[in-house]
Design a protein that fits this description.
Elements (H helix, E strand, L loop, with lengths): L16 H18 L5 E6 L1 H12 L5 E6 L13 H7 L7 H9 L2 H11 L4 H8 L3 H14 L2 H19 L8 E7 L7 H11 L3 E6 L14 H7 L20 H10 L1 H7 L2 E5 L5 E3 L10 E5 L7 H13 L3 E5 L19 H5 L3 E2 L2 H9 L3 E4 L3 H5 L18 H6 L3 E8 L5 E5 L1 H4 L3 H13 L20 E4 L6 E4 L15 H25 L8 H10 L12
Parallel strand pairs: 1-2, 2-3, 3-4, 5-14, 7-10, 7-11, 8-9, 8-10
Antiparallel strand pairs: 5-6, 11-14, 12-13
GO molecular function: diacylglycerol O-acyltransferase activity
InterPro entries: AB_hydrolase_1, AB_hydrolase_fold, DAGAT
Family: Belongs to the diacylglycerol acyltransferase family.
Length: 552
């Protein structure tokens, strides 16, 4: 993903902070001159964060992306600054470096390693017991070598003070795109409070919190920086992030971790996947989904978009297909901060390939022969009212047919059911808006999100975001049925005609409704529709065995 350059400061080096800034600045300018159209990333941890900010402040016209882990700009508001005079007065024999300093700076795994080392246990064995990663262990030795000498430690503290003051006084000049990573168990610096402060001050800044990590974020094995960069959509090769050309598919490990994190949900819903072969035969599984794109999957949204998790997971595990889901802008940006879930809640979806719903993005993804997932009903279906389960709220006019035909994309209508087997909406938007306070809160929630389809008319325009009151049920099962692919290849000229395009659009919608009706009828004969019968089946068979369903 990157050409990597590393700034190494030897333990005995005493270069002042301002000279380090000039050193990095010279390197950045040379690289910018060599490749002026490529962004330059500055990744800085602690004092390195101050260094990156200082360089960005002095070079506002260079395209920089800052990734700052627990930046030390909060040094002046930390307890560490009080140590300087105290440590200066202590003799070397009383210097409390290993047990006292490292216990503050490390997260839980490293802290146990260092504590065991102080107690006389072999450091390597201790590291193996708690970290199990020799690379992390080797990195921790560098920290030890850097911190143990008293003179070096005092020099670092003094440099932290000057670096913090220098960077903090120049925040107003920073224009660079910035991502701040802050730890919840950083006992050296108030990193989470500092992250919030910087997010308010910097013009193009996002924040990600790691509540269980310590100060040395990059020495802790649980953190994967590549996944973070992809999940925040901060990876780009040009001036702006391109959701098509800058997308890097998740690694097998990344995808498996994401899918595993939703294993309980998939266990509860035990999704059944049905697809249709070219000859019209319905089969269990996803064999009817073409392996080559471009392919457009068009279907209905269940309540709160609960259908997305299972669909993306099954497509990947069964067919090794990364489906690029078109998503509402609220999963990427907000008009303002409020009570909606943080944008970081959707990072895993961005790693798996979701992108903001725009015609331009759809054009680019069809150009790259991707599998694209579209829910025309969008927010209106995901936040439906009582009694509206499985009712389609699609725009009156075709929004996707002609662009699909331009690239010869196969359109696969599908239906999904099962939300009413998890819970029932008992309090909806119509109930909540009768209460003035709640009506105001719903308006605030809706205004936080960037609005789509304003002025298109019809129910699909009503995109109020609200928390429905749901009465839980004994969990049932999710069902997905993918109809026969509709070919658009060779129909480009035909579908330029608005009437023909509208005719195909209505055909797709009718097919989605047919798939929904088929599933609602067939699930009645599924002996394993309830989680109780499924649990009994798994108890008498292998835990990973495939649970049967209705006869096709």
């Amino acid at each position: 993903m990157f050409d990597l350059w590393c700034l190494h400061i030897p333990v005995a080096d005493r270069t002042p902070f301002t000279d380090l800034v000039k050193l990095v600045e010279t390197t950045v300018r040379l690289e910018y001159k060599r490749s002026p159209n490529r962004p330059i990333y500055l990744l800085g941890e602690s004092i390195g964060g101050c260094l990156a900010l200082a360089v960005a402040a002095r070079n506002p016209d260079i395209d920089l992306v800052l990734i700052l882990a627990n930046p030390a700009t909060s040094f002046g508001r930390s307890q560490v600054q009080l140590l300087t005079s105290l440590l200066d007065a202590l003799p070397v024999t009383h210097f409390p470096a290993l047990p006292n300093i490292l216990s503050l700076s490390a997260g839980d795994p490293l802290r146990v390693v260092f504590d065991n080392a102080v107690k006389g246990l072999p450091l390597l064995d201790a590291a193996r017991e708690t970290i199990g990663d020799f690379t992390t262990f080797a990195s921790s030795l560098l920290v030890l070598a850097d911190i143990l000498p008293k003179e070096t430690f005092l020099w670092k503290l003094k440099m932290l003070k000057s670096a913090s003051a220098y960077a903090d006084s120049r925040l107003y000049a920073i224009k660079a795109q910035t991502l701040i990573l802050c730890s919840g168990k950083d006992q050296l610096l108030p990193s989470q409070q500092e992250g919030e402060r910087l997010r308010q001050l910097l013009p193009n800044c996002e924040l990600r919190k790691f509540d269980d990590n310590g100060h040395f974020l990059f020495l802790e094995g649980s953190l994967d920086l590549v996944t973070i960069i992809k999940g925040t959509s901060y990876y780009r090769r040009g001036k702006y992030h391109d959701y098509a050309s800058d997308f890097i598919p998740p690694s097998r490990d990344e995808a498996n971790k994401i899918i595993e994190s939703y294993s309980l949900f998939n266990f509860i819903t035990s999704p059944v996947m049905l697809s249709t072969l070219e000859d019209g035969k319905i089969v269990k599984g996803l064999a009817g989904i073409p392996s080559e794109g471009p392919v457009l999957l068009v279907g209905n949204h269940m309540l709160l978009a609960l259908d997305t998790v299972s669909l993306l997971s099954q497509m990947y595990t069964e067919q090794d297909i990364i489906v690029r889901g078109m998503a509402h802008p609220l999963m990427f940006r907000r008009r303002k901060r409020g009570r909606l879930p943080e944008v970081s809640s959707f990072d895993w979806l961005r790693v798996m390939g979701i992108f903001p719903v725009t015609a331009t993005n759809l054009f680019k993804l069809f150009s790259s022969k991707s599998h694209v997932l579209l829910f025309p009903g969008g927010v209106r279906e995901a936040f439906h009212r009582k009694g509206e389960e499985y009712k389609l709220f699609w725009p009156e006019q075709s929004e996707f047919v002609r662009i699909a035909a331009r690239f010869g994309a196969k359109i696969i209508p599908f239906g999904s059911v099962g939300e009413d087997d998890l819970g029932q909406v008992v309090i909806d938007y119509d109930d909540l808006v009768k209460i003035p306070y709640l009506r105001s809160e719903i308006e605030n929630l809706t205004n936080e999100a960037v609005q789509l389809r304003a002025g298109v008319g019809g129910e699909v325009e009503n995109q109020q975001v609200y928390p429905p009151g749901i009465l839980p049920k004994v969990p049932g099962r999710f069902y997905y049925y993918f109809g026969k692919p509709i070919e658009t290849d060779g129909r480009k000229q035909e579908l330029k005609d608005k009437d023909k395009s509208q005719e195909l659009y209505l055909e797709v919608k009718t097919e989605v409704e047919r798939c929904i009706a088929y599933l609602k009828e067939k699930r009645e004969s599924d002996p394993y529709r309830s989680i109780l019968t499924r649990s009994l089946y798994q108890a008498t068979h292998a835990p990973t065995s495939d649970i049967p369903t209705f006869e096709i």
